[in-house]
From TrEMBL:
Annotated localization: Cell projection, Dendrite; Cell projection, Growth cone; Cell projection, Lamellipodium; Nucleus speckle
InterPro entries associated with the record: Abitram, GCV_H/Fam206, Single_hybrid_motif
Principal location class: other
SUPFAM superfamilies reported for this sequence: Single hybrid motif
Name of the featured protein: Protein Abitram
The keyword Nucleus belongs to this UniProt entry's keyword annotation: yes
A GO-annotated cellular component: nuclear speck
Coiled-coil residue spans: none
Organism: Gouania willdenowi (Blunt-snouted clingfish)
Length: 182
């Protein structure tokens, strides 16, 4: 009997992400249908940029060929060097700053954007060597980047983002559910 109760408790325990982060979403990034991004905001104001579970890379069973943090000839997110307590030296990003480009084996290419203003703390170099992390664990090991918004902007950065409920409402209106045969 105790085993059953213990199992119920384990199933209801929230994940670390659900416990310590607030999920925010940017739907249809740059007016591209379904290119949704998720921002995980920690109470210490650090934000983790990930793909939303509705992004075409995750939804359509794509295989990732390459992930490139080289944004232009003069700008590579891999060259980001942060130092000190106040994280000096990190590249400053606007909300539409590209973080990386992901190319799939079917040659479709997706640009992942920062979605918020702030200082780039780090990019996830692990996904360069193991791109499947992006597919298998998008909210944890497969994150894209970590951004620290300015302190004075930390409350307002989410104004242009959608809460989970708002995002689910947007997603539910995209395509009608398949009709059930009668």
């Amino acid at each position: 009997m105790e085993q059953v109760e213990q199992k119920d408790v384990e199933e209801k325990a929230p994940s670390v992400i659900d416990r310590y982060y607030t999920r925010w979403y940017r739907a249809d990034m740059k007016d591209k249908p379904c290119e949704d991004h998720c921002i995980l905001q920690h109470s210490n104001r650090i934000c983790v940029v990930t793909l939303a579970e509705t992004h075409p890379i995750l939804q359509e069973g794509r295989t990732i060929q390459t992930i490139n943090y080289q944004i232009s000839n003069a700008c590579s997110r891999l060259n980001n060097k942060v130092s000190g307590k106040s994280k000096r030296g990190g590249q400053f990003l606007t909300e539409f700053a590209p973080l990386c480009r992901i190319t799939c084996t079917d040659k479709t290419e997706y640009t992942i954007y920062s979605c918020i203003r702030g200082r780039l703390l780090e990019v996830n170099e692990n996904i360069l060597e193991t791109p499947n992390l992006l597919l298998e664990k998008p909210s944890t090991d497969g994150y894209i980047a970590v951004i620290l918004p300015k302190f004075e902007e930390s409350k307002s950065i989410t104004e242009k983002l959608l809460s989970r409920e708002q995002f689910e409402s947007v997603v539910s209106k995209r395509s009608p559910a398949p009709s059930q045969p009668s």
